């Protein structure tokens, strides 16, 4: 069965219950959340998240905890040249993994880090050291750390499969390391997923092992292949296109792997510049039907 959903919010009074309701409104059977704002360290106490109520709502609607994905905040950089900032990243990532485990989710997606002009070799060494500490800090928790494939903008690490492989193979206890395969990022990094996903996956399998993939981020791209810009586009309206993305989403090798949409919100009316409407319900329908609806944005605006 196709597992597909999107990023959903967790805020307000209902917290995680609201996340589940939002996911259900899109027809999702998996979803991704942040445990708090991705740009800061402020976090509500666990008892305020309504975890047990959310679990009950999921049970009633056949949603499984293993299909809930948490995304780590952006403010951490395990590759930073500053030892204090690296220690902050270790400590905060460890606490986020503990929150992930308490929620009941089984994986947390992590941007590997940025070497900040030290060079990727030094940055990768720092990431390995940091992950060793994080895994030791959370050794009793059954939570995967899914390293995300990156587009290669700036000094990002993870811009190619070789860099992710160096990290994974460098970590002492790497059984809890997995990969989040982002379609926009890999396209922008230069991989030919539009023309030949199977060939790209054969390369990935040789370098890392496709069994390491625990989640996909499904996004079209505003950029040509290899642009290294990381700008998501709505499904079927970018340079990857619906046909190629549909092939990935419905690929038989990854049936049980959650597929998470992170596409941009759109304007609710043709004369509005405010992008306030999530297109996930409509995009999920297209993937389930395996049929592109070129008028989908116009239909959203006519509701």
Key traits:
two-stranded antiparallel sheet; 303 residues; eight-stranded parallel beta barrel; alpha/beta
Task: Itemize the secondary structure elements and their pairings.
Layout: E1 4-7, H1 16-25, E2 30-33, H2 51-60, E3 68-71, H3 83-103, E4 107-110, E5 113-114, H4 120-137, E6 144-148, E7 156-157, H5 161-170, E8 177-182, H6 183-189, H7 193-207, E9 213-218, E10 220-221, E11 232-233, H8 242-249, E12 259-261, E13 266-267, E14 275-277, H9 280-289, H10 296-301
Parallel strand pairs: 1-2, 1-12, 2-3, 3-4, 4-6, 6-8, 8-9, 9-12
Antiparallel strand pairs: 5-7, 10-11, 13-14
Helix pairs in contact: 1-2, 3-4, 4-5, 7-8
Describe what this molecule looks like in 3D.
With 303 residues, this protein is α/β, with parallel strands linked by helices. It has helices spanning 16-25, 51-60, 83-103, 120-137, 161-170, 183-189, 193-207, 242-249, 280-289, 296-301, and strands at residues 4-7, 30-33, 68-71, 107-110, 113-114, 144-148, 156-157, 177-182, 213-218, 220-221, 232-233, 259-261, 266-267, 275-277. An eight-stranded parallel β-barrel has the order 1-2-3-4-6-8-9-12, surrounded by four helices. A two-stranded antiparallel ribbon has the order 5-7. β2 (30-33), α2 and β3 (68-71) form a beta-alpha-beta unit. α7 (193-207) runs parallel beside α8 (242-249). The longest helix is centred in the first third of the chain and has 21 residues, at 83-103. The two termini are 30 Å apart. The model has no long low-confidence stretch (mean pLDDT 95).
């Amino acid at each position: 069965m196709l597992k597909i959903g999107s990023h959903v919010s967790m805020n307000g009074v209902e917290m995680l219950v609201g996340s589940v309701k939002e996911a259900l409104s899109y027809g999702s059977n998996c979803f991704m959340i942040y445990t708090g704002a991705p740009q800061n360290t402020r976090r509500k106490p666990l008892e305020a998240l309504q975890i047990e109520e959310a679990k009950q709502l999921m049970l009633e609607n056949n949603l499984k905890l293993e299909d809930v994905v948490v995304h780590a905040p952006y403010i951490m950089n395990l590759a930073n040249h500053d030892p204090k900032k690296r220690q902050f990243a270790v400590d905060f990532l460890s606490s986020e993994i503990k929150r992930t485990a308490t929620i009941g989710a089984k994986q947390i997606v992590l941007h590997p880090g940025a070497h900040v002009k030290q060079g990727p070799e030094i940055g990768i060494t720092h990431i390995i050291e940091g992950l060793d500490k994080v895994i030791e800090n959370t050794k009793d928790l059954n939570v995967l750390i899914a390293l995300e494939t990156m587009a290669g903008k700036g000094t990002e690490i993870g811009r190619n499969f070789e860099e992710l492989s160096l990290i994974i193979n460098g970590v002492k206890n790497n059984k809890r390391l997995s990969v989040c395969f982002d379609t926009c990022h890999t396209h922008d990094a230069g991989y030919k997923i539009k023309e030949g996903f199977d060939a790209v996956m054969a390369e990935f399998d040789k370098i890392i092992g496709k069994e390491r993939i625990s989640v996909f981020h499904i996004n079209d791209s505003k950029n040509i292949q290899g642009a290294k810009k990381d700008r998501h586009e709505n499904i079927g309206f970018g340079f990857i296109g619906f046909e190629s993305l549909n092939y990935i989403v419905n690929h038989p090798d990854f049936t049980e792997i959650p597929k998470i949409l992170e596409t941009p919100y759109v304007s609710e009316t043709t004369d509005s510049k405010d992008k306030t409407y999530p297109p996930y319900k409509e995009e999920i329908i297209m993937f389930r039907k395996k049929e592109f609806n070129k008028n989908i944005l116009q239909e959203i605006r006519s509701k």
